[in-house]
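seq/struct pair 1
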Amino acid sequence: MPFKPNLLSLAPVSRPRVSDQVYATLHAQIVDLSLPPGTRMSELDVARAVGVSRQPVRDAFFRLAQQGFVDIQPQRATSVSPISIERVLQARFVRTAMEVETIKAASRSVSDADLQRLRATLDQQGEAVRNDEKSRFHALDDRFHQEICVISGNPFAWQIISENKAHLDRARLLSLSFNLEKTLEEHLRIVKALEDRDSEECERRMRHHLSRLVDEIGRIQTENPSYFSI
C-alpha cells in the first residue's frame, strides 16, 4: 500500500516575515552602497523608518552580522561593516568556479535567439556607459551573467552565485568609477566566443573577466580607504 503523507499536519505556508523584509531591505542597501561602510544605525531609528517594532530589526541585524555586513557593539550603535578583501576574494573564487562551467555549457547550446538577447543587453550597457549610469550598468551586468546561466541550461546556478557574491558586489560597484568601458569590452568578447561556439575561448574570456578584480582591488582600496577594513 503506497505511503500517504498526512498533509494536514504541515504548517501553512506564510507570507515573508517582517524581519525577512527588513533584512532584505537593509541587505540590498548595504550591497549597493546606499548604506556605505561605517554607516551607524540603531534599532529604534530603523524601526521608525520602516514602520515596524524593534524586534524584527534586531533579528535582521543579527542575520546581517552573521554574514559579515554589520558590526554589533552592545550599548552602541550598529554600523555597516567595512569591506573585507578576504571575503571579496572568497566570493570571486566561488563565482569563477560556477561561471566557468556555465559558460562552457552555454557554448554548446547557445542559439541565435540567445545571442540576440545577449547583444540587446550589451546595447543597453553601452547606453549606460555613455550616460555614466553606474547603477544601471551594474544591474545589466548581472542580467548578462544570469542570461548565460539560463542559456547553459542551469538557471539555478545564478541563484547560487547571487547568494555568494554580495561582498564582491560592493567592490565591483566601486570599480565602476574607472572600468565601465573595459567591462563592456570584455562582455563583447565573451559573446563573440559564444557566437563562435568556442568552449575553450569562452572559458578563457570568462576567467580573465572575473579575475581582473584581483588586479584592481588595490586601486579600489586606495581610492576608497575608509570603505575597507585594515
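seq/struct pair 2
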Amino acid sequence: MSSTFHLAIPVTSIEEAEKFYCDLLGCKKGNYEEGKWQDINFWGNELTLHEADHALPNERHHVDMGQVCVPHFGIHLTRDVFDSIKEKIETHDEFKYLDEPYLRFKDDEQEQETFFIKDPSGNVIEIKTMRTPELLWADNS
C-alpha cells in the first residue's frame, strides 16, 4: 500500500503553476486533463493543480519566531535540495520569498531552517530542512 500524500489546490493558471512547480522547484508533471487539472510529483507526493477562478485566502498565525500564513502546505527536504531551491529563488527575477529563510527552534534538536514562498496563484508553500529529521516522528509520549 502506498503512503503517498495527495493534495488538490486551486490555481488561476495551470500553465503558470507548472512553470513555478516544475521549472523553479524542480517537480515533474504527471497525469492531467487538458485545461482542468494537472498532477505534479511533489517530492513523491501527488499535488493536483485545479484550474479555478480564485486562490485560497491567507491569514497569519504565530509560530515560534514568526507569523506563518495559514493555510499552507510544505515539504521537508535534505539540506542539499533545500539549498539548491534557495539559490534558485535568490537568483530568480519573478519568484521571491514570502518569508525569507530563518532558523526556527534554534539550538534545539528540532532546529529547522524554513522559508515560505507563494505560487503564482497565491498558494503558500513552506520549504524546510531539519537538523535531525529522524526525530520528526519520534514518540514523544
